[in-house]
Amino acid sequence: MKNTENDFINENYGLAISLARKFYSHGLNYDFEDILQVALMSMLKAHRKHDPSRSVFSTFATFCIRNDLIKFVKKQNKNRDIALSDLLGSFTTYDETAIDEVLPDNLDVEEQAIFYYKRSNYKDMEIRDILDMSKKDYKAKVRSFYNKLRAVNE
């Protein structure tokens, strides 16, 4: 590497660090050094391509570094395998017999209708239109419905 490029990297190291920190702080599962290396390589590439007559270097470099960091993250996430058990572990399963026992007794008419329409794959907006409910009232009924189901499952 040329001596001028070393000086250039030392002068603009803070720019690469600040952009790398932004990507690292978003909870990505990469080492900070990997992200910083991508940022520094991108900054060097931006230095070689920059035309001083068109724009300020930091603006151009920020754009280039950010794009390369996004490409890096997308490439790393493309082939990431997730175990099916990890995906299914977050879902709560309800006992079907317990659900059937609680529905007729504890639910009011609107909650029963919401349950029926949700089981029939209606969208929330369609259910609200059918039942002529406001968004606020609908959310309250759904919350009440789910709380009753959770109580049965416990």
What number is the mean pLDDT? Answer: 79
Q: Architecture of the largest domain, CATH level 2? A: Up-down Bundle
- Give the strand content: under 5%
Q: In this structure, how is the largest beta sheet organized?
A: none
What's the CATH C level of the largest domain? Mainly Alpha
Count the DSSP helices.
9
Tell me, what's the shape? elongated
Describe the structure.
With 154 residues, the chain is an all-alpha fold. The protein has two domains: 3-78, Four Helix Bundle (Hemerythrin (Met), subunit A) (Up-down Bundle), CATH 1.20.120; 96-153, Arc Repressor Mutant, subunit A, CATH 1.10.10. 75% of the residues lie in helices and 0% in strands. The protein contains nine helices and no strands. It has helices spanning 3-11, 13-24, 32-49, 57-78, 84-88, 96-106, 109-119, 124-131, 135-153. The longest helix is centred in the middle third of the chain and has 22 residues, at 57-78. It is elongated and about 80 Å long.
Tell me the layout of helices and strands:
Blueprint: H1 3-11, H2 13-24, H3 32-49, H4 57-78, H5 84-88, H6 96-106, H7 109-119, H8 124-131, H9 135-153
Structure, briefly:
The protein is an all-alpha fold and 154 residues long. The chain has 2 domains: 3-78, Four Helix Bundle (Hemerythrin (Met), subunit A) (Up-down Bundle); 96-153, Arc Repressor Mutant, subunit A. The chain has helices spanning 3-11, 13-24, 32-49, 57-78, 84-88, 96-106, 109-119, 124-131, 135-153.
